[in-house]
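Summary of Year 1 activities. Much of the first year was spent building the evaluation harness for sequence design. The harness presents a backbone, in tokenized form, and records the residue chosen at every position. We chose the following record to illustrate the format because it has been used consistently in internal testing since the harness was completed.
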């Protein structure tokens, strides 16, 4: 009888605590309403348009008047001669960006952590963060000037040391490397923030013990600092798998040209040309839906791996 009475009191207290918590957090939930409405409209409402992928879409007839053709658009899409090179380019460029986007920020964070002068460390951090806040439209114009084979400063330096000028944005061989390098240059400073935050969680006593044992800065970095952020590195690597088909539309669209389609055209730019420039709405929607389906699989796999290897779970 006493046990049941105790459980009843605990239930009442828990219910009252939940009500009090709801009342306290009610203004925060109300603040979320505009964001939820925007997500419902632009993220979920727009999904109605995916029906175009299964229609012979006629703009004058609309979504509900165009004839249904099943998977014909997907058949036509994968029978196009340039679709497989586009998928290959997307995977190659995205994978290279993903790899460099983990390695470079980690190395930078480790090196920056070794700087003992606080003002120098903060100054370097500020400088490398800035490019992340500049749009690709502006950066594309800057890089076109810098990398120009005739007037660019990079090729001017190459000529001074006896190397033939390179058309970085017009040569099929060099274009993918240029995209990866410029993307890493823009994002590595901001990407290193999470690793710098992880470094602050390492117990300082470990470094003190290592110094007593005679370990230098290199040994400390190798045996304390790097293992201390290994779980974060694994987590960020696994989660980045979801972007394996995101080659970076803003960057490539503003920097590529028809001369580099063979190695620089990705799914996003391919869909843009099909749908917006050539008005092939049905096939372009099918291509976009294919990309979304593959990305969904990679997201599911990446979160499963993140839970297995890094203990990261959303729910």
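For this record, the design step produced the sequence shown next.
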């Amino acid at each position: 009888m006493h046990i049941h009475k105790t459980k009843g009191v605990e239930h009442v207290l828990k219910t009252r605590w939940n009500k009090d918590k709801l009342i306290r957090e009610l203004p925060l939930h109300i603040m979320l309403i505009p964001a939820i409405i925007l997500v419902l409209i632009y993220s979920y409402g727009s999904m109605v348009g995916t029906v175009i992928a299964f229609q012979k879409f006629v703009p004058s007839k609309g979504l509900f008047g165009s004839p249904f053709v099943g998977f014909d658009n997907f058949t036509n899409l994968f029978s196009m001669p340039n679709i497989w090179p586009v998928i290959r380019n997307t995977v190659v460029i995205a994978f290279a960006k993903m790899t460099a986007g983990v390695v470079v920020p980690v190395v930078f964070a480790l090196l920056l952590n070794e700087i003992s002068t606080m003002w120098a460390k903060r100054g370097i951090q500020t400088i490398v963060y800035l490019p992340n806040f500049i749009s690709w439209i502006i950066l594309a114009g800057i890089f076109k000037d810098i990398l120009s084979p005739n007037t660019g400063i990079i090729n001017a330096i190459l000529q001074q040391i006896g190397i033939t000028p390179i058309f970085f944005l017009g040569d099929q061989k060099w274009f993918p490397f240029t995209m990866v390098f410029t993307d890493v240059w823009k994002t590595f400073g901001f990407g290193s923030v999470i690793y710098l935050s992880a470094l602050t969680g390492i117990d300082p006593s470990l470094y003190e013990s290592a110094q007593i044992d005679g370990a230098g800065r290199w040994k400390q970095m190798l045996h304390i600092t790097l293992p201390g952020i290994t779980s974060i590195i694994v987590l960020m690597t696994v989660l980045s798998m979801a972007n394996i088909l995101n080659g970076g539309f803003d960057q490539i669209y503003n920097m590529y040209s028809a001369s580099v389609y063979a190695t620089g055209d990705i799914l996003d730019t391919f869909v843009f040309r099909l749908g917006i420039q050539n008005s092939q709405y049905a096939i372009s929607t099918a291509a976009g839906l294919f990309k979304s389906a593959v990305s969904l699989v990679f997201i599911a796999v990446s979160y499963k791996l993140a839970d297995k290897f890094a203990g990261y779970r959303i729910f």
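Residues 2-44 form the longest helix (43 residues). Quantitative recovery figures across the full test set are reported in Table 2.
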